[in-house]
Input
Amino acid sequence: MSPGSFDFVFLKSVFTHMRPAGVEHYLREMRRVMKPGACCLATAFLLDQESNQLIASGQSSLNLVHDLGGYQVLDPKFPESAVGLPEASFKHWCEQANLILELPLRYGSWCGRSRYLSYQDIVLLRAPSLIPAFFHSCIPPNPLPAGAFKTCFLVNAPNSGKRGRHKSAIISAVDKNF
Output
């Protein structure tokens, strides 16, 4: 994919199955292919004080208690089956990749939170824009200029049918004409 070619990147249930080195690589590659001001919606299992307390008290639907050196997994035999990433580390990796993490984070119910938006945690990322931040929005202009919006969709796809083995699949890279 060409550098700076996408307005929007979507990763659903991708970071939830990746170890930190892979997440860091994906963040750098996403930034490379994103246009200035482009947005990304991604999901993850982010570990913070609240999620760790809920896991420890048995309220989580995912028992991410196996520490593999800086991240936690559901099953150490199949680490990619479910991966919890420290929120502070994820924020740092975004910063290193020159991606802006839009706040607030939208936490999910996976760990037993009573207030949530979805099952997985939702993060919105933005590539730095050439225009001042107070003019910027992740919502594209309406109407969109013809041929002006490219989207890259990444979803989790099974790899070889083996438990815990996943890969990302680009399901569409579309130049839309509105």
